[in-house]
Amino acid sequence: MSAKRQSRRQFLGASTGVTAAVAEVLADPPHAAAQSAGVKKADLPDLTIKEVKVYVADLSNFRRLNSSETGEILSVVTNSGHEGNYTIGNRGLTPNWLEWAKPALLGKNVIDLLPTITATTGTKETFGFSGGRSGAPGGGRGGANAAAGGGGRGAAGGGGGGIGAGNRGGGTWPNFYTAAAEVCMWDILGKAVNRPIYKLLGGTKDRVMAYASSQHLPNVEDYIADALSAKEQGYKGYKIHPGGGQKRTGPAIPAYFGHIEEIRTIRKAVGDDFVLAHDPVQRYNLFEALKVGRVLDDLDYAWFEDPIPTTDLEGLVELNRALDLPLHVGEFLTSISGFAEYIRRGALDVARLIADNVGGISGSMRVGALADAFNLECTPHNWGNPTDLAVHFHLELAMPNAYWFEMPHPATAVDRPYQPQFRIDKDGYVFAPMEPGLGYPIDHNALDKLMKRIDR
To answer: Which of 175, 230, 274, 335 is placed for a possible disulfide with 270 were both Cys, Cβ 3.0 to 4.6 Å?
Structure first.
C-alpha cells in the first residue's frame, strides 16, 4: 500500500468536528446565516419568491470553454427585492428549467425551502414527484446520467419527494434542476445578511492557491509555450488537458503516445519544482492509463485526474493500486452515495465534484465532509463561465480539505463583460470575494447590451 493512503483512524477525531459543523449549517441555513450576521432568523427580510426568470445573453462573440454554453442566467427574486443568480446554460443540462421552477418555487419562502433542499439534494441521482404526466424532462435523462458515470436511472429512478413533491405532473428530474435553484437561494441568503456564501458555510480562508488548467490544445508542441506562460504569470501549477496527441507534422500515432511526450517535454520545460497534473477526461482504457500513469509517477506529477471512464469502478481500483500518485475522480458522479462507494472501494484518493451534479452547494459540502471523514481532499471543478467558477470557489473557501483553485488558462477565456474577472495575484492566489452572496454581482447595464430575451 502506497504512502498516499493514510490511516482513517489517525484522522477521525479531527474530522468528526468538521462533519458536525457542516451538518449543523446545512440543517438550517437561514438560522446559520442569521447567526453570522448577529440577528435572529425571524428578523430576516421577506424572502418569499415572487418571480423566476431566465436572462438569455448573446455569447456569439465570446469565447466559451463549454461549447454547449447557451448564455442563460437564472434569476430568482424575492419580495424583499433580493435577486439570486446562477448559470443554467453552462453545460446545456437544464432544458425547460422554468417549467420545473414555477410550481416548485413561486410563492414559497427561501427560509422554508432551503432547509428542505439541503436535506435531500444530491442524495440520489435524480429527485422526483408524484403524478402521471408523460415526457417530463427527467424521464429521458437517465442516459445522460449514465454517460456521465452515474448510472442514470431515467424515469424509474430517484423518488424521494424533496422540493419536487406535490408539483403538477410526474417524472424525475436530474439534480441539475434543483442545484440551480439551491445556488440562487444561497445567493439570496448571503445578500439578505450581507455575507458571502463561504462565510455562511463556516469558511475562514481569504484566498486559495491557483493552478492553470489548460484547454485541449491541437498539437503536442502547443503545450510547452502554454505551460511556460502559466508559470511566468505566477501560477504555482499547471494541469494538462491533452488534445489529440498528434504532432504538427509526421504520421499519425496513438493519442496516448503523444500525451506521454507532452508529459515529458512539459516537465523538462518547467523544471522539477513546479506542480504538474494530467487530466485526460476519461479518455484512456486501463492499459493506456497504466502506461501514462507510470510516466506521471516517474516525473513526479502531482495527480492523475479522471484517467478512465468513471463507470469502470473495478478499473479505477486496479489503477489506484498500481500507481503512486493520487487519483482525482468524481466529476462524473451524480450522487453523494456514489462517492461513498468509490471511497469505500479505494477507487479514488481525492474526491472531485461538479456542484450541478450533486445538487448544488449543499450536496457539494456533504461530499467534502464525506471525503474529509476519510482523510481525503476534495477538489471542486472550476471550468465554465464566471458564475460557475464563483460557486465552486465558495466551496473551496469553505471546505477545510480543499487546497487549489482551478483557473482555466488563459483566464481571459472566462471573462464576461457583465461580471467581475477572476485573476491571480503576484503570488498565485485568488482572493475571496468581498461582496455578499456569490460575490460576483451582475452588471445589468452591461448584460442588457447583450440581451437576446428574458424568459418568464
So the answer is: 274
Alpha-carbon distance of 241 to 243, in angstroms, equals 7
| Contact between 400 and 18 (Cβ < 8 Å) | yes
Set out the domains of the chain in order of their start, with CATH numbers: 28-194 (3.30.390.10), 200-442 (3.20.20.120)
Q: Rounded to whole angstroms, how far apart are CA atoms 336 and 353? A: 10
DSSP state of 134: T
Instruction: Find the helix packing angle between 255-270 and 286-298, rounded to 10°.
Output: 10
Question: For every residue of 386-418, which 3-state class applies, written as one string?
Answer: HHHHHHHHHHHHHCCCCCEEEEECCHHHHCCCC
Tell if the pTM clears 0.85, that is, is over it. yes
159-193 confidence digits (pLDDT tens): 333 343 222 233 455 678 888 999 999 999 999 99
**Cβ 192 vs Cβ 80: under 8 Å:** yes
pLDDT at residue 353 above 80? yes
pLDDT digits (tens, 9 = 90+) for 66-83: 766 778 899 999 999 999
**CA 415 vs CA 56, 59, 387, 405, 435: distances in Å:** 17, 11, 10, 16, 18
Rounded distance between C-alpha atoms, residue 376 and residue 400, angstroms: 11
